[in-house]
Write a structure and sequence with these properties.
The protein has 5 domains: 153 residues, Orthogonal Prism (Agglutinin, subunit A), CATH 2.90.10; 139 residues, no CATH class; 140 residues, no CATH class; 123 residues, Phosphorylase Kinase, domain 1 (2-Layer Sandwich); 211 residues, Transferase(Phosphotransferase) domain 1 (Transferase(Phosphotransferase), domain 1, Orthogonal Bundle), CATH 1.10.510.10. Helix content is 22%, strand content 25%. It has 18 helices and 41 strands. Helix 10 runs antiparallel to helix 17. The longest helix is centred in the last third of the chain and has 21 residues. Bound molecules: 2-acetamido-2-deoxy-beta-D-glucopyranose (8 copies). The site of one 2-acetamido-2-deoxy-beta-D-glucopyranose has 2 residues, from loops.
Length: 797
């Protein structure tokens, strides 16, 4: 089974080569320039000058002195010396030890100091060493244990194993980490992780300019921080210690397996993220991100935006607003947020008495906690009037006879997933907009979104015949390989360019490349997937395509053809008129699937997977089961997409898989544990998807809880409710209780068995089919232990 082999090798951790010839030491009198570097004795870290890249802007790039992971092919910086003093020109640039013993970045020709360690050094014979744990140490030449300055005391955004985060009581130094300004600029950013200054044993996440935390780790309980349950449980990757003695008060952690390459950062997203490097995937795999809900981070989308945890991207402009700085936005620096299409009349006409400004309602919103102005207003219209009478007022809400107004920039507005039946549907915010924008928005709202619904019911066989006939007729040219095995058509690139109208109608961006809608012979709708790059040679690609093309099942998306020209690799699939499952489950305003349809979808997906696992010649593990990969045809028959990608992409597959955003989500624990992957990873993902089909919401967040508690982890909640016999509460409220409760209970049981920690506790897909068909009985599942630990309560101050 070649696939199993591939995936297994993907998961071996990166091992560090023994040693290298390069030096780890800089002595007094030595200097080095942009083309040199220090490499730690174990080869793991390097120190040198690097240049940031900015593909989008094309600006002249800045130079920095920093430490990076020397064994990781994807350049990743862990420390930057001069984060706020970028170097523009490398002429005469050097790193050396100055007369006073400090390490300095120097302009050799002008002798001006660009950056210095600024240590108070009494003797001037010093040495610099890049140690094996990634610490840059300025020490005394005569006494190697005397540390005069170290990079661990001045971290940027990365918390190294062995380093200390927190207070040095002797020197008064408080070590904290601060995010980068944006994805490519290491300058001091907006978010900060630091020891609670009030003396409580916890770490706070705050905007740099504020002391009000948007998230905290919870108080250290002797073993772990309650809000990071990932720190507990068996097969831990780290041992963490919180120290409080005369010397200091800090957190430190060490790797259990010294050879593992890990990275703990405070990200541009304001979340703390823990990554491990997986050799096979050639990328960082995220183990956890906290806070879990991206919208918990203060002002993450900037002013006049709406943050939605259940959508990606999470940030959108409020209606009537546009992105203020697309360049910054693209680089995930959202501090400037969105700005008005049209200025308020109140501002441009400088009159509050006869303003033409209007209010546009934004329903189903979670209003910001920050105390708004409360006005004395007896009715909604009085409240509106109160807002209109002050030019700085940008929005109001009127709930329970309380009139609240907001002034100037609106921050931290969150969208909730509201269902029609409950009364906890969030609140409505009335946003002040100019009359011009208001009228445009009002008209837009009336537009009915008409989905493309073009049948794709013809069998691939008929399609093939038609194309062949047409090809002969039109050009007399049949692309080579057309008669290829299994009825798979080899398209020329120009054919597909024409079919997709030069790749204009984008259906979506899948995990491995963008997908475009096209028509073959102007009549047959197809979905053309353009793979991001040529991962495999032509011969092997053709072989794999033909073996994937041979797999046919009602619940699997049919591969119609492919294109393989030069470095171009495209796949052509039958077009699914009802898009993917996520569009029906999670999106606002989507038509809800009724219970019968959902059960049939659950069963269909199970059948498709069982076929992949058990019935085709080579066992195929999908590895990426999620609602986005479950397509629905004109009759809502589910079809699994993207199977066999591991075969097509080889080692690249896992890279793509693991760089996908979000938390571990649908991935089974085996992916992180680094053991061999079996079909049971699909069973796990299936269980997660099944819960979402039942509940109609993303597993990670509770919908619309007005209490602000967004941390209920649904899979665990479901397992508990199942044991308590309260399945009815778990089912999507959009179904208005029109549900077959026996089926719902069965589906819940199946889902909870599928997400068990141990793969041998999970059923096979074949068994799942039999259970859902009612042919086999199933017992009550226990609550999955690992998930329970991960879900623990979280402190959101
Ligand atoms: C750097 O400075 C030198 C000398 O002033 C100049 O010749 C060179 O063009 C500059 N390089 C850049 C990239 O600006
Ligand atoms: C050093 O100074 C020279 C002369 O002013 C200048 O051309 C060069 O760009 C400077 N280099 C750095 C790294 O600042
Ligand atoms: C440092 O070294 C220089 C030259 O070697 C010497 O002139 C100076 O006195 C020394 N300074 C101290 C504080 O030892
Ligand atoms: C070397 O430095 C350490 C730490 O400052 C100190 O404890 C030790 O006494 C020093 N040893 C000598 C020989 O000076
Ligand atoms: C912090 O506040 C100061 C002054 O209010 C401002 O200049 C600075 O840009 C702010 N920094 C951040 C990261 O918001
Ligand atoms: C400003 O007020 C005048 C008269 O009241 C009106 O005609 C004009 O349209 C207003 N300007 C805007 C931008 O609405
Ligand atoms: C408008 O509201 C702001 C914020 O509440 C307040 O500071 C300001 O005085 C008000 N202006 C007028 C004209 O009432
Ligand atoms: C929802 O409505 C019911 C009955 O009208 C009421 O008892 C309950 O308190 C309401 N819940 C909320 C959160 O408003």
């Amino acid at each position: 089974m070649p696939l199993l082999l591939i995936v297994f090798t993907l998961l071996l951790y990166l091992r560090i080569p023994a040693s290298s010839a390069a030096t780890d030491t800089l002595l007094a009198g030595q200097a080095f320039g942009v083309n040199h570097k220090l490499i730690s004795k174990n080869g793991r870290y390097a120190l040198g000058f690097f240049q940031t890249s900015s593909k989008s802007t094309g600006n002249t790039n800045n130079w920095y002195l920093g430490i990076w992971f020397n064994t990781v092919p994807k350049f990743t910086y862990a420390w930057v010396a001069n984060r706020d003093k970028p170097i523009k020109n490398t002429t005469s640039l050097e790193l050396t030890i100055s007369q006073d013993g400090n390490l300095v970045i120097l302009n050799r020709s002008t002798k001006s100091i660009i950056w210095t360690t600024q240590a108070n050094i009494k003797r001037n014979s010093t040495t610099v060493v890049l140690s094996s744990d990634g610490n840059l140490i300025l020490g005394s030449s005569s006494n190697s244990s005397e540390v005069l300055w170290q990079s661990f005391d001045h971290p940027t955004d990365t918390f190294f194993p062995g380093a200390k985060l927190g207070l040095d009581k002797v020197t008064g130094l408080n070590r904290r980490i601060v995010s980068w300004k944006n994805l490519i600029d290491p300058a001091t950013g907006v978010y900060c992780e630091k020891l609670d200054p009030s003396g409580v044993d916890q770490f706070l996440f705050t905007p740099l300019n504020s002391s009000i935390p948007y998230w905290s780790t919870g108080v250290w309980n002797g073993k772990y921080f309650p809000s990071i349950p990932e720190m507990t449980g068996s097969n831990q990757i780290f041992t963490s210690t919180f120290v409080d003695n005369d010397q200091g008060k800090y957190l430190t952690f060490n790797l259990v397996d010294e050879t593992m390459v890990t990275r703990n950062v405070i990200d541009v997203s304001g979340q703390t993220k823990q990554f491990i490097w997986l050799e096979g995937s050639q990328d960082w795999t995220m183990i956890y991100a906290q806070p879990k809900a991206p919208c918990d981070v203060y002002a993450i989308c900037g002013p006049f935006t709406i943050c939605n945890d259940n959508m990606f991207p999470h940030c959108t402009c409020m209606e009537g607003f546009i992105i203020a700085s697309p360049e910054d936005w693209e680089l995930e620096d959202r501090t400037s947020g969105c700005s008005r299409n049209t200025p308020l009349d109140c501002i441009s006409n400088k009159s509050t008495t006869h303003t033409t400004d209007k209010f546009y309602s934004l329903p189903c919103i979670k209003l910001p906690q920050k105390a708004p102005e409360v006005e004395a207003a007896a009715s909604a219209s009085e409240c509106a009037q109160a807002c209109l009478s002050n030019c700085s007022c940008t929005a109001y809400s009127f709930n329970n006879d309380r009139c609240c107004t907001w002034h100037d920039e609106l921050l931290n507005i969150r969208a909730l997933q509201c269902s029609g039946t409950t009364n906890s549907t969030g609140e409505t915010l009335y946003l002040r907009v100019s009359a011009k924008d208001f009228n445009r928005l009002k008209n837009n709202r009336k537009d009915i979104i008409i989905g493309v619904a073009i049948g794709a019911g013809l069998s691939a066989f008929i399609l093939l015949i038609m194309i062949l006939r047409n090809k002969r007729k039109s050009s007399g040219h049949i692309p080579d390989g057309v008669q290829g095995c299994n009825g798979i058509i080899a398209f020329g690139f120009s054919d597909l360019q024409r079919a997709t109208n030069k790749f204009t109608n984008k259906l979506g961006a899948g995990s491995f490349g963008a997908v475009f809608k096209g028509f073959i012979d102007d009549s047959f709708a197809v979905a053309v997937k353009r793979l991001d790059s040529a991962y495999q040679g032509e011969k092997q690609f053709r072989a794999e395509v033909s073996s994937i093309g041979a797999i046919q099942h009602i619940n699997l998306v049919k591969l119609v053809g492919f294109c393989c020209e030069g470095s171009k690799r495209l796949l052509v699939y039958e077009y699914m008129s009802n898009s993917s499952l996520d569009a029906h489950l999670f999106r606002v305003n989507s038509t809800t699937l009724n219970w019968t349809a959902r059960y049939q979808i659950a069963l269909g997906v199970a059948r498709g997977l069982a076929y992949l696992h058990e019935s085709c010649r080579d066992c195929i593990i999908h590895c990426d089961i999620k609602p986005e990969n479950i397509l629905l045809d004109g009759s809502f028959i589910p079809k699994i997409a993207d199977f066999g990608m591991a075969k097509l992409l080889g080692r690249e597959f896992s890279r793509v898989l693991t760089t996908m955003r979000g938390t571990v989500g649908y991935l089974a624990p085996e992916w992180i544990a680094g053991v061999a992957i079996t079909p049971k990873v699909d069973v796990y993902s299936y269980g997660m998807v099944l819960l979402e089909i039942i509940s109609g919401r993303k597993n990670s967040y509770a919908p619309c809880s007005s209490s602000g508690n967004l941390d209920v982890y649904f899979p665990v909640h479901a397992a508990h409710k199942l044991l308590e016999g309260e399945v009815g509460n778990l089912v999507d409220q959009m179904l208005h209780a029109d549900v077959n409760l026996d089926e719902a209970e069965l589906a819940c049981k199946v889902a909870c068995w599928c997400i068990q920690d141990e793969e041998f506790h999970r059923p096979t897909m074949g068994e799942v089919v039999q259970i859902l068909e009612g042919r086999v009985e199933i017992g009550m599942p226990p609550v999955p232990r690992l998930l329970k630990a991960m879900a623990g309560s979280s402190h959101s101050p």
